[in-house]
Amino acid sequence: MKAVALTHYLPVENPDAFLDVDLPKPTATGRDLLVAVKAVSVNPVDTKVRAPKDKVEETPRVIGYDASGVVEAVGPDVTLFKVGDEVFYAGDITRPGTNQQFHLVDERIVGFKPKSLGFAESAALPLTTITAYEAFFDRLGIDREGADKGESVLIIGAGGGVGSIAIQLAKAAGLVVIATASRPETTAWVKQLGADHVVNHREDMVAQVRALGFQHVDHIAIFNDMHHWQTAVELIRPQGGIVSIDDTDLPMPMDGMKMKAASLHWEFMFARAMHQTPDMIEQHRLLSYVASEIDAGRIRTTLDTVLSPINAENMRKAHALIETGQAKGKIVVEGF
C-alpha cells in the first residue's frame, strides 16, 4: 500500500523530510478497524513529532493524526462498525499514523462520518473536535446541553484548528464567546464562526476584555501557548477554570490561582487511547454526537485548505503552512 513516511527528522524544506513508500497492508485484529483512508488533516502535533532531531528510524515511520475513510475490514471483537461504514477519527499517537492507504484504529475512538460532509471536510474535524469538546465539557465541566447558558468563555488562539471548533461548541452550549485573533483574516474567520466579541492577543487583553464590560470571565481556554498565562490568571473569575493544551517550560506562577481558588486543567486528546482508559469509548460517542450536530446544521466544518493527492510533496507543503503559525482553520490532504 502507498504511504507517506519518514526515516530522518528534518526541516520541512528538506526534500527528504517525507518519503513516498510502499508498505504491507495491515490486518485487523481485536477491536481494530482497517480503514481505507480517503483524506487526512495536518495538525501542530504532526509538526512537533516531525521536528528536527538526531534520531533515525530503522524502518519508515508513518505519522498523521486525523483521517476520514471507509471501513475495509473489522477485527473479530468489533461491535460498533461494519465493512462499508464511513468514519472519521484522530487515531492513537502510540501507533502508526494515518498517512497511509490503509490504517488500523481501535473502534472506540472512531465516529461515524457526518453524512452531509465529504471526506476532506470530515478529515478536518476529529483531533480538534475531540480536543475542544474534552476541554470544555470533560475538563472545565461546562454543560453541553446549555445549563450554563450566559456564562462567558475566553478562547485564546481562537482562529486555529481547535479554536475554530471550540467557538462553535461553546455557542451551541449557550456561552458568550470572547475570541482572540490578531490578523484581519482570522478576526473575520472567528466572527463567521459565531464569536460574540474579538480581542487582539498581541495587545493588552486584560484592558480589551474589561472594556467589553467583563471584569472577569467564567472560563478560559488557552489554545495556542502559555505566554498568555498571567493574562489568563488575571481575567479568570474566582473559582473559575482555565484549560490549556500546551506543554510549556515557561514560568507559571500559581499564587493568583490559589487566591482565587481557580482550577487549572490539561487537555491531551490522546490520553484515553494512550492509557487505554476505561472511558475510552467516550471519543466514539462524542465524535458521533458532533457528526449529528453537523448534519443538523448547528456546527460547520473548519476546513480551510485542501491539497491533493496524499504524497510526500503535499505533506511537506501542509507542514510548512502549519509551521508559519498563520494558518486559520484546517489543512487537509486528500486522495492517494
UniProtKB/TrEMBL annotation:
InterPro entries with a match to the protein in the record: ADH-like_C (IPR013149), ADH-like_N (IPR013154), ADH_Zn_typ-1 (IPR014182), ER (IPR020843), GroES-like_sf (IPR011032), NAD(P)-bd_dom_sf (IPR036291), Quin_OxRdtase/zeta-crystal_CS (IPR002364), Zinc-ADH_QOR/CCCR (IPR051603)
SUPFAM superfamilies: GroES-like (SSF50129), NAD(P)-binding Rossmann-fold domains (SSF51735)
The UniProt record lists the keyword Repressor: no
Domain Enoyl reductase (ER) residues, every copy: 12-333
Keywords in alphabetical order: Acetylation, Cytoplasm, Metal-binding, NADP, Oxidoreductase, RNA-binding, Zinc
SMART domains noted in UniProt: PKS_ER
Highest taxon of source: Bacteria
Keyword Metal-binding tagged: yes
Primary location recorded for the protein, binned into one broad class: cytoplasm
Record-linked Pfam families: ADH_N, ADH_zinc_N
Subcellular location: Cytoplasm
Similarity comment: family membership: Belongs to the zinc-containing alcohol dehydrogenase family. Quinone oxidoreductase subfamily.
Assembly and binders: Homotetramer.
Name of protein: Zinc-type alcohol dehydrogenase-like protein
Source lineage: Bacteria, Pseudomonadati, Pseudomonadota, Alphaproteobacteria, Hyphomicrobiales
